[in-house]
């Protein structure tokens, strides 16, 4: 897969936003400098929580036309939701390697539906679980908390997974998600993450623009070393 130079991308997780004002909250994040929106989809089975699904995504897409939407599918049987999410306007479909035995067929199905492929790893899953699939993915997501709930503490011991990926795949998009904020962004950036999901740290900030700019500055200074 051809990969261009690394770019920093900041994608707020809207899980912690005021869901009754989802469009206004999302637009405010984009106006504050966010590059994409990270939409947490949970089914109450794969993780013990239930969140938004494709009807909500479709409504949001009708209001926000040109922003990259990533669906982080924390669901059993992620195969079932490829077509509905493509129809709803998702650009990147990120599924958990733990949730399916049919990783390669699922990657193909996502591509055929016109979306980019993301593969996510829970904290307890070793990097070897995804090693053979990296070439079939557009992005690998390393979870830095247990998926399911916002506001958890960042797990620094996940950084070796990010480092391994960056060392072996210099131009791969590597995303981190969970407890990422101003206090933990340096660890993420130095390990090699370039796609940054932050929920509480951005949503609850008095100045969302300043937080996004600060996260970006930290990541871009590390990316510069990778791209040299």
TrEMBL record:
PROSITE patterns: RIBUL_P_3_EPIMER_1, RIBUL_P_3_EPIMER_2
Keyword set, alphabetical order: Carbohydrate metabolism, Cobalt, Isomerase, Manganese, Metal-binding, Zinc
Active-site residue numbers: 40, 177
NCBIfam families: PRK05581.1-4, rpe
Domain of life, per lineage: Eukaryota
PANTHER family: RIBULOSE-5-PHOSPHATE-3-EPIMERASE
Gene3D superfamilies, per the entry: Aldolase class I
Matching SUPFAM superfamilies: Ribulose-phoshate binding barrel
InterPro entries: Aldolase_TIM (IPR013785), Ribul_P_3_epim (IPR026019), Ribul_P_3_epim-like (IPR000056), RibuloseP-bd_barrel (IPR011060)
Pfam families, per database record: Ribul_P_3_epim
Binding of a divalent metal cation, residues: 38, 40, 72, 177
Cofactors required: a divalent metal cation; Co(2+); Zn(2+); Fe(2+)
Positions bound to substrate: 13, 72, 148-151, 179, 199-200
Pathway(s) of this molecule: Carbohydrate degradation; pentose phosphate pathway; D-xylulose 5-phosphate from D-ribulose 5-phosphate (non-oxidative stage): step 1/1
Enzyme Commission number(s): 5.1.3.1
Family in the record: Belongs to the ribulose-phosphate 3-epimerase family.
Catalytic activity entry: D-ribulose 5-phosphate = D-xylulose 5-phosphate
Keyword Isomerase: yes
UniProt protein name: Ribulose-phosphate 3-epimerase
């Amino acid at each position: 897969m051809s990969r261009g130079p690394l770019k920093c991308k900041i994608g707020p997780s809207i899980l912690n936003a005021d869901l009754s004002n989802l469009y206004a909250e999302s637009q405010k994040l984009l106006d504050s400098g966010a590059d994409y929106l990270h939409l947490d989809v949970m089914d109450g089975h794969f993780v013990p929580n239930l969140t938004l699904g494709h009807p909500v995504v479709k409504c949001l897409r009708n209001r926000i036309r040109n922003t990259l939407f990533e669906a982080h599918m924390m669901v059993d049987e992620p195969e079932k939701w490829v077509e509905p999410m493509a129809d709803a306007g998702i650009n990147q479909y990120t599924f958990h390697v733990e949730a399916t035995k049919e990783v390669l067929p699922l990657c193909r199905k996502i591509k055929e539906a016109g979306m980019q492929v993301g593969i996510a790893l829970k904290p307890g899953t070793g990097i070897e679980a995804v090693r053979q699939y990296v070439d079939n993915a557009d992005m690998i997501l390393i979870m830095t908390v247990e998926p399911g709930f916002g506001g958890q503490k960042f797990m620094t011991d996940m950084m070796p997974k990010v480092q391994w990926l960056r060392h072996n795949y210099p131009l791969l998009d590597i995303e981190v998600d969970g407890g990422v904020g101003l206090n933990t962004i340096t660890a993420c950036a130095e390990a090699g993450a370039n796609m940054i999901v932050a929920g509480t740290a951005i949503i609850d900030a008095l100045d969302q623009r300043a937080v996004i700019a600060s996260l970006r500055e930290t990541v871009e200074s590390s990316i510069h070393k990778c791209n040299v």
